[in-house]
Design a protein that fits this description.
Chain lengths: 269, 249
């Protein structure tokens, strides 16, 4: 039974999962703190539309999904400007557009539907070497950008006005975070699934917010939590033949509940 | 030809016929107003008079609909030296759950377009320690900002505004929600900074006692419901004398 953990496909899923386990909370932190958690969900739904189109026109689906997600991230920023104080409105519009397109492409491409499940809920079987290169490339880009702009992203998330008064390129930084989200989401959906990817962006962050005092420690903590859930969740998925998206997210929710209960026991600040 | 009495003080803020409206409501109309180096300007006016709007225009958060704004002699669109300006907004709109320590927040005053991609240096740490010390918040430096009282948070934001040793400090009702004793200490501190550290101040306040005490009984100008009280720098130090000192250094 343990053999599965040493199989090639599982090793690939593990490598991909560990990399996504770093990038998802890293980007998720800046989304949650700017109250834009829903962007992850929106982009994943749009990615699915791209993936469906990829199958239909026989293009590498993840690449098609990535292009869709990046285009959608530009559209979100544009709409965000039009509806200034209604950020969630632009998000809702793009999300429903993504779902509509996805269902359109899927119905056009009847017969490919066997693959749909794995893109919605994740799979440990589907990751190939190309996918691993994609995930690794995105990981390098995300870590490099966040490391270069760490203090600026901090100020942007803490108080956008202060970043603006300091002469920082606020619009460009907002755009950059959204595009990075698109990259992470579109490469993560094969493992975690489109419906659950935003949980990996947000729940580790939510847990770390309950525990950490400083920004630095909350980032580190959220990555540790997400790795625990990804590695544990992938193993459970492999051993019991379950969808990894489900096991990872349920583990995260269990960790969240434990943290909340533990915090009640001895409250700290 | 007899030269006019020369003004040795640089123009810090210059507003020419500035107007601003939110959609259909005009808040500021035809405002002319200038602040010279080392002036202390107090802005007083009832709620909704447009004081916050005015400050937000001056720091570039709102574009003037009409008229021209200059900072340090440069049109605001071309102005780049934002580290010369410290700004403490009326309400800091941060999320109380935000995981940031006092030290991290104060440090963020150093992040601007010139520090892009640069790592923080030992001097930066020192600047932060100095700012914490000036505001007497060293002992809470590692506390989470959201866990502090309103008065403590206000001092943190002031420390952040001071960390760059700005030439111009802009404060929007800095003592709101702070007890009277802390408030008095706060005014002592900023008047001291004004007198000793050659900073220019632009402060919105409801504290008329402080204004009249330090800036005089009557406003020097008025626009709509906004009144400007000014203490000019040459009342503190004589211009010519100061030029002499400059030439000695
Ligand atoms: N973002 C905004 N959108 C629309 N109206 C606003 C906005 N901010 C302020 N106002 C209006 O502009 C007027 C001036 O507000 P403000 O500058 O905050 O006044 P003050 O700081 O003097 O109390 C008020 O009538 C207020 O209702
Ligand atoms: Mg105000």
């Amino acid at each position: 039974m343990l053999d599965i953990l040493f199989s090639d496909f599982f090793q690939r899923a593990l490598v991909g999962g560990v990399l996504i386990g770093i990038t998802a909370p890293l980007i998720g932190m800046f989304l949650v703190l700017r109250r834009l958690s829903m962007i992850g969900d929106t982009l994943s739904h749009v990615t699915i539309a791209g993936v469906a189109l990829g199958f239909l026109i026989e293009v590498y689906p993840i690449a098609a999904g990535l292009v869709f997600a990046v285009l959608a991230s530009f559209a979100i920023e544009k709409l965000r400007k039009a509806y200034k104080s209604y950020a969630e409105l632009s998000i809702a519009i793009i999300m429903s557009g993504g779902v509509a397109l996805a269902s359109l492409f899927f119905t056009l491409g009847m017969g490919y539907n066997t693959d749909v499940m794995s893109y919605l809920f994740g799979s440990i079987y589907t990751l190939d070497t190309t996918d691993i290169y994609m995930v690794a490339g995105v990981t390098v880009v995300v870590i490099a950008v966040v490391a270069l702009l760490f203090k600026e992203f901090f100020l942007l998330s803490f108080e956008e006005d202060a970043a603006s008064v300091s002469g920082l390129p606020v619009k460009m930084m907002n755009m950059l975070i959204t595009v990075l989200t698109a990259l992470v989401v579109s490469t993560a959906i094969k493992i975690v699934g489109a419906l659950l990817v935003s949980a990996l962006l947000t729940i580790p962050v939510a847990i770390s917010l309950l525990l950490a005092r400083s920004f630095r420690s909350s980032i580190i903590l959220s990555v540790i939590i997400s790795e625990l859930a990804v590695i544990g969740g992938l193993m459970m998925a492999g051993l019991f033949n379950l969808a990894p998206g489900a096991t990872i997210v349920l583990l995260l929710i269990a960790l969240l509940v434990i943290t909340m209960l533990g915090r009640k026991g001895f409250t700290t600040t | 030809m007899e030269p006019e009495v020369q003004d040795c003080h640089q123009s810090i803020i210059q507003l020419n016929k500035v107007s601003f409206s939110y959609r259909d409501q005009q808040v500021i109309r035809d405002l002319n107003f200038s602040v010279k180096e080392r002036d202390f300007v107090g802005i007083v006016g009832s709620n909704g008079a447009g004081k916050t709007t005015l400050l937000r225009m001056i720091v570039g958060l709102l574009p003037a609909a009409e008229g021209a704004i200059e900072l340090f002699g440069t049109p605001i669109r071309k102005f780049k030296d934002w580290e010369r300006i410290g700004y403490v907004p009326q309400k800091n709109a941060f999320n109380p759950l935000f995981p940031a320590t006092v030290r991290e927040v104060v440090m963020s005053g150093l992040y601007n377009r010139k520090s892009l991609f640069k790592r923080l240096s030992r001097q930066d740490q020192q600047k932060c320690d100095d700012a914490l010390e000036v505001m007497r918040i060293q002992d809470i430096a590692d506390k989470r900002i959201g866990a502090l009282s309103g008065g403590q948070q206000q001092r943190v934001f002031l420390a952040r505004a001071l960390i760059n040793r700005p030439d111009l400090l802009i404060l929007d009702e800095p003592t709101i929600g702070i007890d009277a004793e802390t408030q008095a200490g706060f005014f002592d501190l900023i008047t001291h900074m004004h007198a000793r550290h050659h900073m220019t101040f632009l402060m919105v306040t409801h504290d008329l006692d402080m204004v009249k005490d330090y800036l005089g009984e009557s406003p020097v100008s008025q626009n709509g419901k906004i009144q400007f009280f000014v203490r000019h720098s040459h009342e503190i130090e004589n211009c010519a004398e100061e030029d002499l000192q400059h030439s000695l250094v």
